[in-house]
Amino acid sequence: MDDLAATNGTNGTSGTDSTTGAAGTPEAPAARPAEVRTPAPAELPGGRAKPKTDKSEATRALILETAMRLFQERGYEKTTMRAIATEAGVSVGNAYYYFSAKEFLIQGFYDRMTYDHAADARKRMAGTRDFSERLEIALTSWLDTAAPYHEFAAQFFRTAADPTSSLSPFSNESHPARATAVQLFRDVLQGSELAPKLDAELVELLPDVLWLHLMIVVLYWVFDRTPDTERTREFVRRSTPMAARVINLSRYRVFRPIVRDAKGLIQDFILPTIGKTATK
User: Fold this and answer.
1) Are 3 and 55 in contact, with CB atoms under 8 Å apart?
2) How far apart are alpha carbons 218 and 75 in whole angstroms?
3) What is the spatial distance between Cα 173 and Cα 188, in angstroms, rounded to a whole number?
4) First CA to last CA distance, the chain
5) What angle do CA 70, 74, 76 make, to 5 degrees?
6) What is the average pLDDT across 191-198?
7) pLDDT value at 162 more than 50
8) What does the pLDDT average to over 233-253?
9) What residues does 44 pair with on adjacent strands?
10) DSSP 30
11) What are the Cα distances from residue 93, in Å, to 1, 5, 84, 170?
12) Which of 153, 224, 243, 268 is least surrounded by Cβ atoms within 10 Å, i.e. has the fewest?
């Protein structure tokens, strides 16, 4: 029923689209007839409809997978919601029911990839207690999970680099995916032998800092054109033990003043730049 409700007043040859007109000005979304009254669907953060049934979840997944394929083939800017709907075999209205704008397809992609990354990393880390090894596993797992999307990652980065964009990893709209990733790094630390030895307040802050370390890796990865992004993988192999040593040193009394200063910088300048809640 939710798929049928989504198509009221819309068919495969009409509806809204996120393209621009010939003169370069945005086309206004087609208005829904006044007499049609469709209940607003429950939403995920950022305007993404929450599937209610297995069928609607399958439809949402089909739209997302189709979009990812077209982004790879045609590029993000040249792929319209109409084209995605046509390739997926659904109406334009149905596509907008699950993703209220094209950018939220990328949010859906972020959500799914982050979930897949977290599941894969936890499986790989099982039985490993060394913090440095766990951190390297988590970062390498991200590179492996993201590998199929490397060819068009730069297109997304151009939009995500805009601090006002909802696609920014620091935005409120990106909170669900970011929260999943931060929780993974919390597990990286808490499941290691190092966590009980560190200052409790530092343990609380470190997952966000480790997520920022991942963002540095992601930035390097976007521009890496070596086969299998080998330079990024080498960067992870060499930087991870260094980061682990610095964190390990923080437990010694002689370094406590530096640790306090570092915590102050994190709390005052880093954490406030990260959106903590999702936009309703």
Assistant:
1) yes
2) 20
3) 25
4) 25
5) 75
6) 95
7) yes
8) 92
9) 48
10) P
11) 14, 9, 11, 30
12) 268
Torsion of CA 112, 228, 159, 238, to 10 degrees: 90
- What DSSP designation does 5 have? H
Q: Are 191 and 129 in contact (CB under 8 A)?
A: yes
Give me the pLDDT at residue 11, please.
42
DSSP character string of 95-145? HHHHBSSTHHHHHHHHHHHHHHHHHHHHHHHTT---HHHHHHHHHHHHHHH
C-beta of residue 2 within 8 angstroms of C-beta of residue 53: yes
More confident residue, 209 or 275: 209
Q: How far is CA 238 from the centre of its chain?
A: 25
Average pLDDT over residues 116-144: 97
pLDDT per residue as tens digits for the range 76-128:
888 999 999 999 999 999 999 999 888 888 888 888 899 999 999 999 999 99
The lowest-confidence range among 121-125, 137-141, 144-148 is 144-148
Q: Which long-range contacts (CB under 8 A, 24 or more apart) does 82-88 make?
A: 82/15, 82/17, 82/19, 85/12, 85/15, 86/12, 88/62, 88/63
Identify which of 48-62, 220-234, 256-270 has the greatest average pLDDT.
220-234
Token code pair at residue 255: 């370094």
Phi, psi of 112 (to 5 degrees): -65, -45
